[in-house]
Structure formats: structure tokens, C-alpha cells
Known about the structure:
Elements: H1 4-23, H2 31-34, H3 45-49, H4 55-63, H5 65-80, H6 86-89, H7 92-111, H8 122-132, H9 138-148
Helix pairs in contact: 1-5, 4-7, 5-8, 7-8, 7-9
Amino acid sequence: xxxxxxxxAQQRDYETALQEVKQGKKINHWMWYIFPQIHSxxxxxxxxxxxxxxxxxxxxxxxxxxxxxxxxxxxxxxxxINHSDVEKIFSDIDAIKxxxxxxxxxxxxxxxxxxxxxxxxxxxxxVLNKFFCGQEDELTLEIIYKERDNxxx
Length: 153
């Protein structure tokens, strides 16, 4: 599946998402394609459509300049918020999605750094530290570990 699904959705809604994060409250529906998760976590059409299908696709996502710059910028906006109560910004379900997304990106940048052509990898861990006491999402890690066993570059 092509990364175009993310690019097209973000071209439409990224500025709205960024402004909502900067204002400290998510209002609209954009979580799936701004903070994507690994496959097998969501049941809805959008959760499945915008899920990253593999470690390889996650690496491709992070190597895409447009998508990478967007995820870094919105993570930096999260880090600038003057509190650490993630549920003041997102619903409880969207907070879980954020944690999952940050877990995925943090894992891939930590364990596959030579495959990623970017340098600002610490932001994902910083979001986990600020909003989730540094704790990664266990379900995401379980899927990653299964996926990792089948992944080779």
C-alpha cells in the first residue's frame, strides 16, 4: 500500500491538527493519519486503512520528507504544551493511539537507525516521557516483536 494515503490526508488536515495540538485540544478526526499505529490494533475502517502495515512501511514513512517533517513538528508542538495530562488534549482512546504511535516510531528509530535517513529521533521518546512516564504501549510492542522476527534488510 502506498504512503499516498497519508500524504493526501495530511495535505488536507495537517494544519488543522497542528493548530489543535498547539491550542491544547483535539477537536476534529485526524488521529489515524497524523499519528499512525502499527497494523492489528484498530477495528474501524480508518484504523485499518491508515495502519502502518510493517516495520518496512514505518521506515518508508519516516524516510518520506513530508511525513517525517510533519510528525516531528507536531510532536514538538506536543512537547511545548505546559502540562503533561494527555487526556486534556486527546480523548482517552486517542491518548492510547498517541502512545501506540510514539512506541512504534521510537522503536523503529532506535533499532533501525541505519535504515532511516533522518536524525531527530529523540522526539518520540520525549513524548512518551512527558505524557506516559516513558512507558511504551505493550500491545504495539507485541506486534512489533512478531513483525521483527520476519523482517530483514
